[in-house]
Amino acid sequence: MEKHLIALDKGATCSAWNYCSLRMAAGATDGTVSIYDSPEQGSPSFVRSFKWKAHEKPVVKLQWVPPEYGDAVACICADGTVSLWEEIEEDTLMWKLCKVFEGSGTQALDLQFGVTATNLKLVIAYSDGHVKVYELLDPLELNKWQLQAEFQNVIDSVSRFVKPSCSSASIAWIPQRGANHQSSFALGFNSDLPQFNSSKVWEFDEAYQRWLPVADLALPGESDDPVSAIGWAPNIGRPYEVLAVATTKGITIWHLKLNSETDGRLPVEKVALLSGHDGEVWQLEWDMGGMTLASAGSDGMVRLWQANLKGVWHEQATLTSGEGS
Fold first, then answer.
1. Sequential DSSP letters for 226-267
2. Which residues pair with 100 in a beta bridge?
3. Are the beta carbons of 199 and 188 closer than 8 angstroms?
4. Strand duo 23-28 + 184-191: pairing
5. Stretch 10-16: mean pLDDT, rounded?
6. What span, in angstroms and rounded, lies between the C-alpha atoms of 89 and 94?
7. Is the pLDDT of residue 256 over 80?
């Protein structure tokens, strides 16, 4: 007999887990957002604690703010806007709108929060190939943000004036590794212009106060492959970073060296190409140790991948939506 932890309403479009507080947020086609809290003692399922109207149009993506900044969730709406909602206590607990990030006529496709040594940043990718980086001005005021940078996911300066049409994007912020690590994120698009597609690693240059592309996660002949998902693995003592990038060819595992070359670029090495999904891969998630990769896609399967002691990657397990007991 199958057991369901959460029963979502009809019309649910997206969800996001808060692993620290064991809560889940779910968005719906009617523009509402629901919050589900972990089961009470003796109860087998999560309980919805709050539901509110966030947008007039469907909510297409949700992302929790890092837990050290409170209980808050960001929503991408189908009209292109991004809203930030915070749980506050005014007589009773309630969710309150604290910030709206306008899209200037373009659709927000993906967003990620990043914790740096000094503050919180928010990266938003848009359908015109642009990415905007915001920084929080006051850690106690989630409504006070400023635009730090805006650029396109290209290296060639001539291409910066080209306007692509992007159907999706994926952002992966570098997991925290201590106070001295660089602010970095990986970004890839599914675009009608090949030069915007390949995943690039962007790093913040403190000396010049600007974001620079330091690595391209694609081989020379594969740089035009549309990207559907990116996952950056937590790093526990490795002398290199590990990233997973999903394209139409499969899931590529990359090693990103930490020491830059003379031109400021970081060396990359393609170490594996994982195939098994029948269709597009939608999401990539690493475990807390950065050793196991979970992938999910349009075929309705969740696949778990690991590397053996010789560094050879293989499929560890396969899960389907029909499994349970």
1. PEEEEEE---SS-SEEEEEEEETTEEEEEEEESS--TTSPPP
2. 83
3. yes
4. unpaired
5. 93
6. 6
7. yes
pTM, rounded to two decimals: 0.91
Closest CA to 278 of 295, 263, 297, 256: 297
Cα angle, residue 174 at apex, residues 169 and 175 outer, rounded to 5° = 125
Amino acid letter, 167: S
pLDDT higher for 113 or 236? Answer: 113
- CA 300, CA 22: separation in Å to the nearest integer? 24
Q: Which two tokens stand for residue 67?
A: 């837990």
Q: What is the pLDDT of residues 139-168, one digit of tens each?
A: 999 999 999 999 988 876 545 566 789 999
pLDDT at 323 over 50: no
Question: Using an 8 Å Cβ cutoff, are 170 and 198 in contact?
Answer: no
One DSSP character per residue, 49-86 reads EEEEE--SS-EEEEEEPPGGG-SEEEEEETTS-EEEEE
In the block, residue with structure tokens 């809560």? 23
pLDDT at 193: 84
The number of beta carbons lying within 10 Å of the beta carbon of residue 294 is 18
Quick one: DSSP state of residue 11?
T
CA angle (215 as vertex; 211, 221 as ends), nearest 5: 135
